[in-house]
Structure formats: C-alpha cells, structure tokens
Amino acid sequence: MSPTAGVLHLVNASPFAGSALESCLAHLGEGAALLLIEDGVYAALAGSVFAARLAAAARRHALYVLGPDLVARGLADRPLVDGLKVVDYQGFVQLAADHAAVQSWF
Prior knowledge:
Blueprint: E1 4-11, H1 20-26, E2 33-36, H2 51-58, E3 62-66, H3 67-72, E4 84-87, H4 89-98, E5 99-105
C-alpha cells in the first residue's frame, strides 16, 4: 500500500506538562492523523479538560491512542474520548507506513 498524502502526528508528552497537544491540534491538515503515545495518552481520557477538543478533532481527522501505553499507565480500563481508536504496536507501524510523513510533537 502506498502512503497517503497526510501526515501522522505523534504526541508523546503529557498534555498537562506542555503545549504539544494544543500545537499539534492547531496544525492538523487534510488527511492528517494523530496518535497519542507515551504520556500523551493521558489526553485520551474521557472527561479530561482535553476531551472536547479531541472529540471535535476526531470528527475531522483519524485519532488513535497506543494501547500498550494505556496499559503501562494503568489506564486501559478507563473510558476514552469518543472517536479515538486504540491501536497496538503493529497498528502504530501500519499507521506510519500508510502516511506520507511522521511528525513528532514534544
């Protein structure tokens, strides 16, 4: 499968520790996808202060969260923002292969 025209954006920082998530959301373009990894997965929790922004972004873009990072932080059983899809490491690799570029936000 050839890559799409969009960019896969990775956010690994806790949204409570910086502005990486907000900056990323402001720059999502046509065909873009967002994957929350490492401490970025805290933004995926339903009811967080970021839930409304992520739910709105999920209506226009594909949003994902890395399942093993949810598990590592004891969050696997917590409700997530509507529209987010949980992926495993294989899904992460597939997302990277399916997009034209990968942009990390720190």
